[in-house]
């Protein structure tokens, strides 16, 4: 069914409704209208890395981990699996009359906000700090969710539109101020591509104001840009209880009816929250017209028709429940976790030689945690293997004894309330003393970095206050390092963190249900790590701008002028590579990549560009293309990387995108062309200059 046909059917159906019935359908928990054969529908659902919050589903690595894979095709494959499981669950649940929250077909994913500041607690829901990487992965995720049949398999949502990345504590009252240049260059490209290329069905507004206007009622964003400039044809949803913020926190209106009217008039079709319960009062007060209400209702029923909700020929209705939690999907989750993990440093300790190790100490508060596998917005995995379980299962048939100690609490100074401070520290040291190698599993989870209001957020409403481990974990790491035993740091986190201890450091992210299995295979060299950082890792917060400053100056790898701890695009391998023969064209770049080591491995080809002597260009070279390549030991392949068409443009202070005139540096390699990456990898990028 095409959109025109769906809109005509929606218009005809809505025309038969009373005003009260139309208004009732603008709530996220839209009630049934039995006389018209319309079942209840709940618009609120989530699926950033698996169908979430509605029971059993495959749990993939958190979004930031998926971004670290740097692979569009693989990302689309994961999104398709998520979508098929979600549709299977919907088909079965709807047949049983279960139309509860998180059980519809409209998924409020992906989050394509730019992770501009490492303090932001929700950053791990995103694809990182780079607009182009975020754009490409966002497009492929949307396409994977929505499918390519006669009907939408599910409806995706680009959120949070726009300019939204903390602070969480003040998001309901904050005014994010961004220049026209930063809007056009950084904050809007992923949303524009979601609309114009991926044909995303839903866009969600943000909590904050943007340059003075509340995002969920912004004429600039929703009317002028989204529908006017970009031609968006789907529907707009508010973030949850964001419209209430108009009068309670932003004070741009005085009453709930005024807030409902402002949002509706400027194109917000469905309210996650309860402010649209005041829509009829807004109508009675002359703040909205019946035409306004009708327009929004038609948008929403157009989506439901496109999803096949009222059809008897929708092929997606035949997806069986047996697709949920399948062996194949579990294998894909394990593969994703393997591809996502990033080797940050290694003095030669990794990979571990199973023939030389008889005892292993697995220590730390994240080792036996199932929560740390998940990130946030997750389903219930029936197959979770935490880090300790994965290592035990791997070591058992090899005859390797595993000692375990929790070591410390995630944040508190003791585990037992009646114990003394550091009451597991001695045990951790004892385990280390027994072992040939120590694996320290430390980091954060969704209770330490996450969304404002989430139960248990430790500090700053889910945002981080430093780039160090909690003090309890710092003391553990120092004690383990003091034993002198070979020490591998396994870091579970969704953002930049500086952990200096350890002979080797592996970034596991929030690795999903198969995280433990993937970790064991990587540590023991079954698989070479191949993930790359989609965010910059900083030494600390000292030289970063204020968290509330949305200017891009000195933010992200594109504008940062300091020396990073680990750069964007960086990651080590167990093998060695060489590159040669760079050929740069207008639409693509090709070069040769050789695996010069003794182990089969994957790596990531990265292309960066920088216009020379152009005052409108970012400070540093910018990612213009990327792609994965698998190489057997000794193998050479010619890699061809498609380039971002916007790579040959710059954005001026007025927000205008201008073609570059003059010379452009083109860098190609397996990393960013910066001094720190060169020092850490021992490799330099290939370089050429293109005249335009």
Can you give me a brief rundown of this structure?
α5 (131-146) packs parallel to α7 (189-196) and α13 packs across α17. By secondary structure, the protein is α/β, with parallel strands linked by helices.
Description:
The chain has about 700 residues and is α/β, with parallel strands linked by helices. It has three domains: about 5-315, Glycoside hydrolase, family 3, N-terminal domain (TIM Barrel, Alpha-Beta Barrel), CATH 3.20.20.300; about 325-535, Rossmann fold (3-Layer(aba) Sandwich), CATH 3.40.50; about 575-690, Immunoglobulin-like (Sandwich). The chain is built from 19 helices and 23 strands. The strands form seven sheets. A six-stranded mixed β-sheet has the order 9-14-13-12-10-11, sandwiched between helices. It is globular. The relative contact order is 0.12. The model has no long low-confidence stretch (mean pLDDT about 95).
Topology:
Layout: H1 3-15, H2 19-24, E1 29-30, E2 41-42, H3 63-67, H4 72-95, H5 131-146, E3 157-161, E4 175-176, H6 180-187, H7 189-196, E5 202-205, E6 209-210, E7 213-214, H8 219-229, E8 235-237, H9 244-250, H10 256-265, H11 279-284, H12 290-306, H13 327-340, E9 342-346, E10 359-363, H14 387-395, E11 401-405, H15 425-434, E12 437-443, H16 471-482, E13 487-492, E14 504-507, H17 515-523, H18 556-559, E15 577-584, E16 588-595, E17 601-611, E18 622-631, E19 636-642, E20 649-651, E21 657-659, E22 663-669, H19 675-681, E23 686-691
Parallel strand pairs: 3-5, 4-6, 5-8, 10-11, 10-12, 12-13, 13-14
Antiparallel strand pairs: 1-2, 6-7, 9-14, 15-16, 16-19, 17-18, 17-22, 20-21, 22-23
Helix pairs in contact: 1-12, 4-5, 5-7, 9-10, 13-17, 14-17, 15-16
């Amino acid at each position: 069914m095409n959109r025109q046909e769906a809109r005509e059917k929606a218009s005809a159906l809505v025309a038969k409704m009373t005003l009260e019935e139309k208004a009732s359908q603008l709530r996220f928990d839209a009630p049934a209208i039995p006389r018209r054969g319309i079942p209840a529908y709940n618009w609120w659902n989530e699926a950033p890395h698996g169908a979430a919050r509605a029971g059993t589903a495959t749990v993939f690595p958190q979004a930031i981990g998926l971004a670290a894979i740097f692979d569009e095709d693989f990302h689309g494959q994961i999104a398709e699996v998520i979508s098929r499981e979600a549709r299977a669950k919907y088909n079965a649940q709807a047949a049983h009359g279960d139309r509860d929250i998180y059980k519809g077909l409209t998924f409020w994913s992906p989050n394509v906000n730019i992770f501009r500041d490492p303090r932001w607690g929700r950053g791990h829901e995103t694809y990182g700090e780079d607009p182009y990487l975020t754009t490409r992965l966002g497009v492929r995720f949307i396409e994977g969710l929505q499918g390519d049949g006669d009907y939408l398999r599910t409806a995706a949502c680009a959120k949070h539109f726009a300019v939204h990345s903390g602070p969480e504590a003040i998001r309901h009252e904050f005014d994010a101020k961004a220049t026209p240049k930063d809007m056009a260059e950084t904050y809007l490209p992923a949303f524009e591509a979601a609309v114009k290329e991926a044909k995303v069905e839903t866009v969600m507004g943000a909590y904050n104001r943007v340059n003075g206007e509340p995002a969920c009622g912004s004429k600039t964003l929703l009317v002028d840009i989204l529908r006017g400039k970009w031609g968006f044809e789907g529907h707009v949803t508010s973030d949850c209880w964001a419209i209430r913020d108009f009068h309670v926190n932003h004070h741009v209106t005085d009453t709930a009816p005024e807030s409902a009217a402002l949002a509706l008039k400027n194109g917000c079709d469905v309210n996650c929250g309860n402010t649209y319960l005041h829509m009829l009062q807004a109508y009675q007060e002359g703040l909205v017209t019946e035409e306004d209400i009708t327009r929004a209702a038609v948008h929403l029923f157009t989506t439901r028709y496109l999803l096949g909700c009222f059809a008897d020929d929708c092929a997606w209705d035949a997806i069986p429940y047996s697709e949920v939690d399948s062996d194949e999907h579990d294998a894909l989750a394990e593969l994703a976790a393997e591809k996502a993990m990033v080797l940050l440093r290694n003095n030669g300790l990794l990979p571990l030689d199973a023939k030389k190790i008889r005892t292993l100490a697995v220590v730390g508060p994240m080792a036996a945690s199932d929560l740390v596998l998940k990130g946030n917005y997750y389903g219930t995995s029936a197959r979770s293997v935490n880090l300790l379980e994965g290592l035990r299962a791997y070591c058992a048939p090899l005859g390797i004894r595993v000692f375990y100690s929790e070591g410390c609490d995630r944040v508190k100074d003791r585990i037992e309330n009646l114990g003394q401070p550091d009451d597991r520290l001695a045990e951790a040291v004892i385990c280390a003393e027994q072992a040939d190698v120590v694996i320290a599993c430390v980091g954060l989870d969704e209770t330490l970095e996450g969304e404002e209001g989430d139960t248990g957020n430790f500090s700053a409403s889910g945002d981080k206050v430093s780039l160090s481990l909690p003090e309890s974990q710092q003391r553990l790491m120092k004690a383990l390092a003091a034993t002198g035993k070979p020490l591998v740091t396994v870091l579970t986190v969704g953002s930049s963190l500086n952990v200096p201890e350890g002979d080797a450091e592996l970034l596991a992210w929030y690795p999903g249900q198969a995280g433990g299995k993937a970790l064991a295979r990587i540590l023991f060299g079954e698989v070479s790590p191949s993930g790359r950082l989609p965010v910059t890792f900083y030494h600390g917060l000292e030289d970063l701008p204020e968290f509330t400053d949305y200017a891009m100056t000195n933010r992200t790898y594109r504008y940062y002028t300091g020396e990073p701890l680990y750069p964007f695009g960086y990651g080590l391998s167990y093998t060695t590579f060489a590159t040669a023969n760079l050929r740069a064209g207008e639409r693509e770049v090709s070069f040769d990549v050789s695996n010069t080591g003794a182990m089969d491995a994957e790596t990531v080809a990265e292309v960066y560009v920088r216009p020379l002597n152009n005052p409108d260009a970012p400070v540093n070279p910018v990612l213009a293309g990327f792609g994965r390549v698998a190489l057997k030991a000794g193998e050479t392949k010619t890699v061809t990387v498609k380039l971002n068409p916007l790579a040959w443009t710059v954005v001026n202070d007025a927000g205008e995108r201008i073609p570059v005139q003059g010379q452009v540096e083109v860098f190609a390699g397996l990393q960013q062309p910066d001094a720190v990456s060169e020092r850490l990898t021992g490799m330099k990028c290939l370089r050429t200059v293109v005249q335009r």
